[in-house]
Amino acid sequence: PEETVTSSFAAFIHAVRPEHLSKTVCHRSKRMILDSIGVGLVGSTTHVFDIALQYCRLYSSVAVSSVYGKPGVKLSPTLAAFTNGVATHSMDFDDTWHPATHPSGAVLPALLAASQMLPPGTKPNGVDFLLAFNVGLEVQGRLMHFSTEAHNIPKRFHPPSVVGTMGSAAATAKLLSLSAAQCAHALGIAASLSGAPMANAATQAKPLHIGNATRLGFEAALLASRGMEANPSILDDIPGCSGFSAFYSVYQPKPLSTPSDHHEFLLEKQDIAFKRFPAHLGMHWVVDAALSVRNLFINYAGSFSPSLIRTIVLKIPVSKYINRPFPSSEHQARHSFQFSACIALLDGEVGLSSFTESSIHRQELRELLDKVVVEHPEDNVANFDKMYGEVALLLHSGDVLTGKCDTFYGHWRKPLSKESLLKKFRSNASHVLPEEKIETIITMVDNLENLSDSSQL
Asked: How many Cα atoms are found within 13 Å in the side-chain-facing hemisphere of 379?
């Protein structure tokens, strides 16, 4: 049969082997796995996670898969994947790639649940697990490169709900050792289970996008393994009958080459961004700019004195869903340039406690928010590889102090050190796990290639 874009992806998923993973890809993907587990663990302390868990416990009949932060609690595999996906994105603390998506949370929970689902004697080892994880990343990245529209901060669909579902299907298809034909059908089924609108950003529904992506991609692979078929050309651009192209106004699919010793995974070329605090990635530029100008202000005035400030000018990209002058909930605050700048100015740091109700509704914070004016310079584009954040304090004295951030610490151009990543993981995991278990997970992920049974993870 004639090769199509879809068949090339299916062939890649089926044929790729552990030896195709470079040392750099293994290193970077293990960092992603550790970070994703950590943000999932701390995410298991949130209200939205509790809602998801209560819902799933109503419908779990074959409870074999673990839940983040809840020792002893088991759910059916796909519902465990859903619940852990919700936990991962509940604080918007999970990793971000370029083009923009949250790749780990859409794949890892499905693989963890699937590993526990498989009977003894068929459990995947750590190498198989790491390979499947990277297949899920690769498929997401390749699909994002099909459209120039995907390179910018999204306006229509939340990317993980689109490419994340496909990545989950690919990863679990690989872990379950599906045939090339079944892999193609898994992608086709997943496409019919994809998509969530950006209007639900900054609400409790946004974490469901990751939960559904990892769950529904997993379900697509399970359905394909049982003989369900779908359009075998779902990724191809067929005029008059949209497949995956329905999610993009500009769509130029390209075949994925058969894996070989020379195959270069996208993670080799494009590293990941890890967040230092739980908020939308765009907030990290503004926070670092605000912290910079705060230091200048303290040197200028001797202390941080808001009464000396007349106006706070933010120079940010145009992006409606993260331009929120007066956020009223934790989820809105995590998606507010204005809040992020003002909380950093007021407290000199941003962390988990910054997004509590008591923090959000402080009078002194409201007074700072009242002083904010937003500007959108033409050179500041809504693209995580090109944007910047600038915060200027216009003082009553007439003086102006300015802080600017082109690349925050944690961005792929300025990656977190091993020490910083471990510090973040230990801090997140400590909310629900004792120190001994935390160190066990760190060691296990670091030595994933030597793990004989990935369900132990």
From this structure: 4
Minimum mean pLDDT among 1-5, 126-130, 338-342: which range?
1-5
pLDDT, tens digit, 9 for 90 and up, residues 214-262: 999 999 999 999 999 999 999 999 888 899 999 998 999 999 998 876 7
- What token pair was written down for 426? 């230990």
Dig out the tokens for 277 from the structure.
């605090």
Neighbours of 362 (CB within 10 A): 14
CB 108 within 8 A of CB 430: no
Taking the model in full, what pTM does it have?
0.95
Helix (H, G, I), strand (E, B) or coil at 405: strand
Name 96's bridge partners. 273
Structure tokens at 434: 């004792």
Q: Give 121's DSSP letter.
A: T
CB 68 within 8 A of CB 56: no
Q: Token pair for residue 48?
A: 């939205």
3-state helix, strand, coil in the chain (%, to 5): 55, 5, 40
Give the whole-angstrom CA distance, residue 47 versus residue 69: 13
CA torsion sign, 213 to 218 to 224 to 227?
negative
Cβ atoms of 283 and 387 within 8 Å: the answer is: no
What's the token pair of residue 101? Answer: 């998506």
Q: Which residues neighbour 120 within 8 Å (Cβ) at sequence distance 6 or greater? A: none
Q: Which two tokens stand for residue 1?
A: 């049969």
Cα 145 to Cα 266: distance, rounded to the nearest angstrom = 10
Report the C-alpha dihedral over residues 43, 150, 389, 314, rounded to 10 degrees.
-90
The DSSP letter of residue 262 is T
Both structure tokens of 394: 């216009």
